[in-house]
Amino acid sequence: MHAMTLAQMARGLAAGEFSSAELVRHLLDRIGRLDGELNAFVTVTGDAALEAAQAADAARAAGTIGPLAGLPIAHKDIFCTAGVKTSCGSRMLDNFVSPYDATVVERLRAAGVVMLGKTNMDEFAMGSSNETSFYGPVRNPWDTSRVPGGSSGGSAAAVAARLVPAATGTDTGGSIRQPAALTGITGIKPTYGRVSRYGMIAFASSLDQAGLLTQTAEDAALLLGAMAGHDPRDSTSVDAPVPDYTAGLDAPLEGLKIGLVEQFMDEGLQPENAAAIEAALKVLEGLGATVRRISLPNIGLSVPAYYVVAPAECSSNLSRFDGVRFGYRTAEPRDLEDLYKRSRGEGFGAEVKRRIMTGTYVLSAGYYDAYYLKAQRVRQLIAADFRRAFEEVDVIVGPTSPTPAFELGAKVDDPVTMYLNDIYTIGVNLAGLPGLSAPCGFVDGLPVGLQLVGRAFDEGRILNVAHRYQQATDWHAQAPGGAFA
Amino acid sequence: MEWETVIGLEIHAQLATRSKIFSGAATAYGAAPNSQACLVDLGYPGVLPVLNAGVVRMAIAFGLATESTVAARSVFARKNYFYPDLPKGYQISQYELPVVHDGRIEIRLDDGSRKTVGITRAHLEEDAGKSLHEDFHGQSGIDLNRAGTPLLEIVSEPDLRSAKEAVAYMKAIHQLVRYLGICDGNMQEGSFRCDANISVRPVGRHEFGTRAEIKNLNSFRFVERAILFEVERQIDILESGGKVVQETRLYDPDKDETRPMRSKEEANDYRYFPDPDLLPLEIGPEQVEAVRAALPELPWQKRDRFMAEYGLSDYDAGVLSSARAVADYFETVAAGVADKKLAANWVMGELAGALNKAGLDIAASPVDAHGLLGLLHRIEDQTISGKIAKEVFEAMWAGEGDADAVIEARGLKQITDTGALEDVIREVIAGNPNQLEQYRAGKDKLFGFFVGQVMKATGGKANPALVNELLKKLLAG
What we know:
Chain A is α/β, with parallel strands linked by helices.
């Protein structure tokens, strides 16, 4: 039952082949048996999940039910969930039980989706390997000595190991797409403003976007429609109609113009990985698309610009964690300054502190223009590069990550090498565009991903391309073996 | 050496919205601590600010009334610093691009002269909460009810040259924001307060001296006292060869002096940057025009109209247009009487005196405009004299009913019946033969004596003009 995609589960529930309660019980049992090894969950909400599943079954029996009711999901622990611990992977919020639901959580709950638990993540979503979590690293089900990527590593590992068919994630610089690539699943980061950020604990507000990790593009399309749309509680969410993302999935790719980013196919990319991308493009050509090389001249500046803008925003966003009103507070503070210093010093991990310090520095008097303002200008240049490219092509493609999953501990002591993991994904956040990673092969037995980037609010198009690709290939259907089979 | 004072004021006007600037929590004053702070005000993880549209309308109204530019695009920025009553660790304000800029307002000084004061900018921001350092046994309490309360910070040009000018400017802004209905102006509750930037320079020098900023002045008197003290302090330093230090100071009303704030509190680098949670504030011409169309008559417009329409003096027009409630009261009364000056005199005289004595606002007056109008009608139709009217007013104030009821109950109706009055006068003349003799012998001054006697005999109810006429006739014999 666990090997099914979300769409298959939905059909099974609708046909009465099994109940939501049976499905949820089965998955909870798997989580209980297998998550000790993966560490993908921070919190499992078994009782509440069963109750919600039974309610969905009852509603189905009564005939009052939507298409998503009773389907299981996990939420990244960055989304506030009423009455459930919301840790953001940090000691700072280890004791924090949110008094309210994030809009994403609320909307999926309203659609009848059943939450099984909260997934592990890099602390405050800062990391590319899920090794910065207060709750310890998540392991990649394809090889448990390796990382699952990050920061949505718990969500990715849980979906890849078939503990849940789908999980929410957030993506600030690649945090959905990179772990999706490294665990062989599909991950979509919608356009900035497509999904409400309300109740999603902020890392870098101008870049953060909620999305999904699923087995297939079809599954992502099913859930995205329920998550997306304007939210009056988030001023940056865009008031534009939400299409039925499933309706366009099967559209033919004849005449589709695809642009391959030439800057991404350089020596930084592992040759086997490059070969997988080339092979994927052949498949898309076979489906009627045309592929040409395009240039994003300023894309090489993405990483440095990002590591100014994101830390700047995070240094301010994380100021509210001060030990005064919620979260971690140090024992016996001597005075106010001691309360601040020790609560924050003890509550935050090393990577979070590094970024707060970097961000504080780049916003300081005398440095603001040289760093923050300049980075914002670079950001405009990168966005303009994408705009120009989209005058010629409909979808932009490239690799998601330069290498497959690496060993736990391999890069933790070298932040710059770690940051370069997101070299292909970060520019998409800076430009605010929708991006998707779909599995496109294996290198040394480890999955690698193909990244698709669309025009703003054209999620439907990249879902369509990914879906057609997945109809023609079976990379997405590969699942880790061994204990996880 | 002759010194010139240079002052600029930063006025914080709390905008009179029901809910906060970025959340739906109420703004009412005086609620139990932390009972009016929602998750947004508390800076909970994941929450986001949403701009209250009401504050934008208010800022536009202020901009239009001060002939300012209303920015088509302004930007909210974060001012970052740590303090327990600042829940997010930053205050949302406007920094490089304020919503209103480059305006002016005319002030009037006691000597009747006028001066135009430039308004550099006015920007929207949220207030912080309050730290309570008493009653917590060595710890501090925090009340976040005020956190997120909308403020309009109005920054003047350094155009003010004396404490008196500063107070006149502050009063002009105070009057304006209350006229516009965008601030209740309550200074005790902190709804209207200011910081003063003060420096001195030798007369004739163009460059400004080093300034000190006096924080949080919440009365007109404190503004005046603080400036007077600070100017003297700076002149003393300069004349003894010292240098003024640029610093933030506090005014202590008990000691009537300013002193430096702890330097720790000002050593902040606020690291301003545009708030990524809020879109730039865009204001279109149609929105500006909608606010313009709904603008009330402004204080100086009303003053001019009162002079033209009611023939009032500049001074009377100024007093009667000082506040909208006073002006509305006056106009209600004036509309019903032929003698507009009579209405003005009563509102500025008896009414203002009684309100002042009772410490009441005109809105809470026991005698409302229609009540006073009823009284003035009885003066105009000569039912009572102006003197008796004062007695009637007092009775009305004490709650004895409207003018007619009081006049009836107390039998104060003026005697205008010639026959009846002649009888009284004859009795008075008959009762004072000596005075009559002296009067007829040429002692004209005694006429007043007879008037007094007649008034006494009629309990003041005799029509004074009629008394004069009849008395003259009858005394002549």
